[in-house]
Amino acid sequence: MQRWAMQAASIVVCLLLWQLASSRHLHLGFITFANVPSPAEALDAGWQLLHSPKLWPHLSSSLLRVGLGFGAAVLLGVGLGLLIGRLRWARDTLLPPLEVLRPIPAVAWIPLAILMFPSSEGSMVFITFVGALFPILLNTIHGVEAVDARLIASARSLGTRRWRLFTEVIAPGAAPSIVTGLSIGMGTCWFCLVTAEMIAGQYGIGYYTWESYTVQNYPNIVVGMLVIGVLGMGSSVLIQRIGQRLMPWYRPQGGSR
To answer: What is the pTM of this model?
Structure first.
């Protein structure tokens, strides 16, 4: 209860600071809050969106794109990460081109994605896939590399073959890093989705936010940003909770509980 109270208090403090800055039109050096809507205005805009018939099309479009892109990134990122982290030939042949592609920001893929896919939906799903792929891939590789060599040697001495070695030793040993990569990948997935929807979407939370900006409806911009934040945080927490259920043997060492 004490932790929940502290977390709730931190949110309340942020809202109060936001209200103070917007109501007094503060100028903090090169930052101004003269045109920033107040929490009350954002709350009113959120209430209107909640009762709008466009809410479900926006939410369902974004959730579907994130689900498809993230799901494909999980399959490919975890699979390639296990291979690259364990097999030298995979590292030598697959990792160099992936490392070349990794620093390219997702927004730079948008023109090429539009050319590659006949529909805008396909291009937006591809952008979310690219955003989630590399955090998942790299964390999986690092997790595989960090598996204790003594565990692998012990399993081999007991007659464990290569496939069972992957499924019963390497994958469980790398699972904490994989879950971390999934959580990070989900956050970048939402970030990239919003960027894609601003350019190529007709429905979606990112499109709703960008459309609000073009018509200068500033409270709706804040509502769109908050919805994105809540969805991103909720999906990342869900991944962490599922990971904890699937890894009863793992307990984080840092931090007090």
So the answer is: 0.87
Give a yes or no: residue 48 inside a domain: no
Q: Which candidate, 173, 169, 181, 172, places its Cα nearest to that of 240?
A: 181
Domain count, the chain: 1
pLDDT, tens only, 4-42? 888 889 989 998 998 888 888 888 778 888 888 989 999
Q: Which of 7-16, 155-164, 179-188 has the lowest mean pLDDT?
A: 155-164
Cα dihedral 82→88→94→99 (10° resolution): 90
Looking up residue 219, the CATH number of its domain turns out to be: 1.10.3720.10
Which run of H or of E encompasses 174?
helix 171-200
Residue 136: domain span: 56-246
Within-domain flag for 252: no
